[in-house]
Amino acid sequence: WECTATTMDSTAVGSACSDASQCGGGCCLPELDGHFADGYCTLTGCRSNDDCPSSSICKANTSIGVPIDTYCALRCTDHSDCREPDYACLATDSGEKACVPPFMEL
After folding, report:
1. Count of CB atoms within 10 A of residue 99's CB?
2. In sequence order, what are the residues at sequence separation of 6 or more whose Cβ sits closer than 8 angstroms to the Cβ of residue 45?
3. What is the pTM of this model?
4. Which of 5, 25, 27, 104 has its CA at 20 to 30 Å from residue 11's CA atom?
């Protein structure tokens, strides 16, 4: 799997997807080994939040078996901002919150 997109519609980040055409110009990270249920619209390879749409933050990937280093994860303030129960609003190392699979290490 490879993502070559560099920009996307900020409203699409974190949306469910089965292919990139559903991601507002971004990429569809497919469900892999039980991670990223129902797909996840994103950009990969970010180095800072500036590389991501305004609705998201740059997050290191900690899912074993998912072939990306970093990705843009949807910002959130509460679990209800995420696609529950497959995603939860969790604090990252920087203190910012993002919608991620609830079993991921942050």
Report:
1. 24
2. 3, 51, 68, 69, 70, 71
3. 0.90
4. 104
